[in-house]
Amino acid sequence: FSSVEITGHLLGRIEQLDGNYNSFITVTPEQALQQAAAADERLTAGGAPALCGVPLAHKDIFCTEGVRTSCGSKMLDNFTPPYDATVVENFNNAGAVTLGKTNMDEFAMGSSNETSYYGPVKNPWNTNCVPGGSSGGSAAAVAAQLAPGATATDTGGSIRQPAALTNTTGLKPTYGRVSRWGMIAFASSLDQGGPIARNAEDAAYLLSAMAGHDPKDSTSLYRPVPDYTAGLNGDIAGLRIGVPAEYFSDDLNPQVAARVQDALKEYEKLGAQLVEVSLPHTHLAVPAYYVIAPAEASANLSRFDGVRYGHRCEDPRDLRDLYMRSRGEGFGEEVQRRILVGTYALSAGYYDAYYNKAQQVRRLIKQDFVQAFEKVDVIMGPTTPSPAFALGEKKADPVAMYLEDIYTIAANLAGLPGMSLPCGLVNNLPVGLQIIGNYLDEARMLNVAHRYQ
Ligand code: GLN
Asked: Is 0.85 exceeded by the ipTM?
């Protein structure tokens, strides 16, 4: 098939089916078909890169030149960036086709995709359930076969948790592996882009195109990018898998635990060795994250002031009124909650008690992993404490929602790569197996995931 034919087929599926899922905020058919025609020419000429002609979807947090980039917020409902994010540029250079922009929690704050200004995303496995978040649109689009792969971001689980809830494979790279330039900032020391795909092999192709040093992002790493597809079939006999006791606590649904244990047994059959490890500060990850992430968010979101771009209120009386009403109208409830919490934690009288304390806890959490990786090659456990929950179930209870990420957030605080891959069903809903790797060990993680799939 030509890229034009495949792209046309997927655009048709989106048109026909996405009314059920709401996984896209914007679909760009004309642009997609133009890109596909150009890709077909490159493919005919020969020597085109692996992703040439492959249709993808981008989370609406990545800036796209000439295409509205809303970040799931009313604040940016009218924002059309004049440039592409580096990740998007990399895919364009590789000849990939952009089908459109996927739905997400507002400013990536959420674990259910219910905070989006554009309405919730429905889980293709059961449309009464959430797909997870914040990259719920990307995960649902891949799960519903509206796109073979999609970009996503993970500040505290937002690639891995929706991947787990939709039976897709998602990878959050090492902090700094993928450029954040043009990716709308939530919490800059935690944010990292990565792929959601149908399996580890596809994720490897996507990551190979996304990763790399970018002079426009001062935190991006100066390290060569390996070919992530090269080692997928490598033997994993002798692999040491760390199994943290803390990831199998009472919070974990027993049926989810059983699926994860089955997967670990499969790994033993493949020659891997299970090693008990301890990550004693695990229970502090969520509390530390909910100080650090809102603190950084409160600073990052100060740029949305109604002056330069984004939502502006009608007829402001004065500058203060302009700020207050533009921000009050443009930001949803969860975003406002984060700004308030973050501003409080950073204020002079509370800085040491909250922000500094959280940074100290962050160091302890990182230290736990450094010690564990002296004994093991990868760490495995569940991605989430339970399968997908019902729409509306946790919406009114922010703390219940925050606990969705008890197993994912520590990797963000430590800057480590993490991925989620499908490992069976519970009541016909998907369960995710999480792999946490050592710094820059994405190639090994993809190999380990691929051997199981
Ligand atoms: N669920 C977490 C939050 O709401 C993580 C979100 C994310 O990773 N972007 O902050």
From this structure: yes
Our count of domains for the chain comes to: 1
pLDDT digits (tens, 9 = 90+) for 331-363: 999 999 999 999 999 999 999 999 999 999 999
CA distance 178 to 452: 26
State if residue 134 touches ligand 1 by the CB under 6 angstroms criterion. Answer: yes
Q: Map residue 441 onto helix, strand or coil.
A: coil
Catalytic residue among 73, 112, 116, 134: 134
Q: What is the CATH number of the domain that holds 116?
A: 3.90.1300.10
Is 59 marked active-site?
yes
138 lines ligand 1 (CB under 6 A): no
- Within-domain flag for 51: yes
Which atom of ligand 1 lies closest to the CA of 409? Answer: 5
Q: How far is the CA of 131 from the centre of ligand 1 (A)?
A: 14
Is pTM beyond 0.95 here? Answer: yes
Q: Confirm or reject: Cβ of 158 under 6 Å from ligand 1.
A: yes
Quote the pLDDT of residue 26: 98
Percent helix / strand / coil, the chain, rounded to 5 = 40, 15, 40
Cα distances from 235 to residues 112, 439, 449, in angstroms, run 37, 21, 12
Cα 393 to ligand 1 centre (Å): 17
Ligand 1 centroid, distance to 155 Cα (angstroms): 6
Domain that holds residue 56: 3-210
pLDDT of residue 424: 98
Longest dimension (CA), the chain: 70
Ligand 1 contact, 110 CB (< 6 A): yes
In a domain, 302, yes or no: no
Task: Specify if 260 maps to a domain.
Answer: no
CB 450 within 8 A of CB 199: yes
Q: Does the active-site annotation cover 158? A: yes
Q: How does pLDDT run across 254-271, given as a tens digit for each residue?
A: 999 999 999 999 999 999
Q: Ligand 1: distance of its center to the CA of 166 in Å?
A: 17
Domain-located, residue 121: yes
